[in-house]
Amino acid sequence: MAVLEISQLKKTYPGGELALKGVDVSVDAQEVVVLLGLSGSGKSTLLRCVNRLVEPDSGKIILDGVDITSLDKRALRKTRRSMGMIFQEFNLIDRLSVLENVLSGTLGTTSTLRGIFRAFQQEDIQRALALCERVGIIDHIRKRADQLSGGQRQRVGIARALMQHPKILLVDEPTSALDPKIGREVMDLLTEVARELKIPMLVSVHDIFLAKNYSDRIVGLQGGEKIFDRPTRSIETEELDQIYHEAG
Amino acid sequence: MTGVAITGNPLRDPKKIARKYFAIAVFAAIILYIGKVIIVDGTDWARMGSVSEVIDTMLFFVPDFSFFPATVVPLLETLLIAFWGTALAVVFSLPIAYLAARNITPFPWITYPLGRCLIILSRSTHEIIFALIYISALGLGPLPGILALASRSLGFLAKTTSEAIENVNKGPIEAMEAVGASRATIFFFGVMPQIFPIFVGNVIFQLDINIRRASILGLVGGGGIGLMFAEVMQNLQYDRAGMIVVGITTMVVLGEFISNRIRQRIV
């Protein structure tokens, strides 16, 4: 059963740049799907269309039976609460503490007044602490987010996304700002927690090694079009290389 | 090795150098001519008398330190005028900054120009003019002085804050949007922490300047030490005036010292 079903998604940016030319992608329960492609292939646009940080021009996006493209602003905000997003540049609030950054994952469900005064519910704080423990940043919760290393910052980003009780994780190039070793540690952690919590993931990646090692299925994108979509175990690394070279 | 033939120093083009010095000479001549017209021609040299007479007159201002106790209360009043003026400016500058930040202004076609106009109005009007307006409406005393300082400062604060809002890092904002946070929450949780150090730095900077501004408001009846200064000058008590100048200077230097310390700790 597909948790997320994207069909015929099209997006042209105001400048006339054609980012997506009718792409179909589906993500099953507990499945890790990697979007593989060069920069400019439409990976980030596709991910951002799912929670409509980028407005798609046409196509359908069905999450758990709800068509996201048809939602009004209020309903969209509600639906965004159930989609955790993890970013290439972490997108933390530098001057706030690690714990507050993790807790910011609840801002969709916290009242505005509580949000303004950062007066979080006790149960949310307990959950945030448990997640900090799980992702290995419990020793840093009082530090400002900008005092952490890149790998630690991405762990904060992961905890923040998990804070949302997400039905799906949208992960945009999670390791591109990290060195390869730290990047693999982050990918290990991500896939582990996703499996533990039974959350499916849609991950954009441009690294063939990561795509091959951390996914159940790989969707290849090139110039805004899907050029292949196969279970990872049926793909040989050479094939991916091939595709990459043709893409380049 | 294939070299390119370059003769002389390629960084020194004699034509360019000649043009540069010609420009400097023209500029200097203009400045000197203006100086002649407004200083040499515009001064009543006969009235000034000899150099020793000038020095004698300036010595009238040697401070009379026995006058110090009388200046304490007006100096404190000046300080409080500066504090209150700045505090009011803080309160009113935030909504104006919100209107005048292009990226978050609620109705760009109406509220953005409105915010910008208020900022320009505030910044282009001298505090003495504001003070005169408020004095004619409210009478003499510290209150019109406070309002004058607030009116003058809020434009600067609103301008710098709205620019800080426009230059905010968009990543965290995107993350807040992605968790489904409301616009207000995004502003207070995602935007405010980012602009906070800039804002506080500017508030302290304004407080510092407002202490200076507050000390002259009394000249037009806006309360504070300036009023006392105007009085002693009218009574030709130059030694007392000298004491007041020493008092103001001390207060301003102290204010600057403290504000620098605070700013260093915050930013």
Structure description:
The complex is a heterodimer of chains A (248) and B (267). By secondary structure, chain A is α/β, with parallel strands linked by helices. Chain A has two domains: 2-82 and 167-247, Rossmann fold (3-Layer(aba) Sandwich); 95-165, no CATH class. In chain A, 36% of the residues lie in helices and 25% in strands. Chain A is built from nine helices and ten strands. In chain A, the strands form two sheets. A six-stranded mixed beta sheet of chain A has the order 6-7-8-3-9-10, with helices on both faces. A four-stranded antiparallel beta sheet of chain A has the order 2-1-4-5, with helices on one face. The two termini of chain A are 35 Å apart. Chain B has 267 residues and is mostly helical. Chain B folds into two domains: 14-59, no CATH class; 65-266, Orthogonal Bundle (MetI-like fold). Chain B has helices at 14-40, 45-48, 51-59, 68-100, 111-124, 127-138, 142-166, 170-178, 183-217, 225-234, 238-266. The radius of gyration of chain B is 26 Å and the shape is flat. The chains are: A alpha/beta (248), B mainly alpha (267). The interface between A and B is medium-sized, with 34 and 21 residues.
Q: Summarize this, please?
A:
The complex is a heterodimer of chains A (248) and B (267). Chain A is of the alpha/beta class and 248 residues long.
Question: What does the secondary structure layout of this molecule look like, with pairings?
Answer:
The complex is a heterodimer of chains A (about 250) and B (about 270).
Chain A: E1 2-12, E2 18-28, E3 32-36, H1 43-50, E4 58-63, E5 66-67, H2 73-80, E6 83-86, H3 98-103, H4 112-116, H5 122-135, H6 150-162, E7 168-172, H7 180-196, E8 201-205, H8 208-214, E9 217-222, E10 225-231, H9 237-247
Helix pairs in contact in A: 5-6, 6-7
Chain B: H1 14-40, H2 45-48, H3 51-59, H4 68-100, H5 111-124, H6 127-138, H7 142-166, H8 170-178, H9 183-217, H10 225-234, H11 238-266
Helix pairs in contact in B: 4-5, 4-7, 4-9, 4-10, 4-11, 5-7, 6-7, 7-9, 8-9, 9-11, 10-11
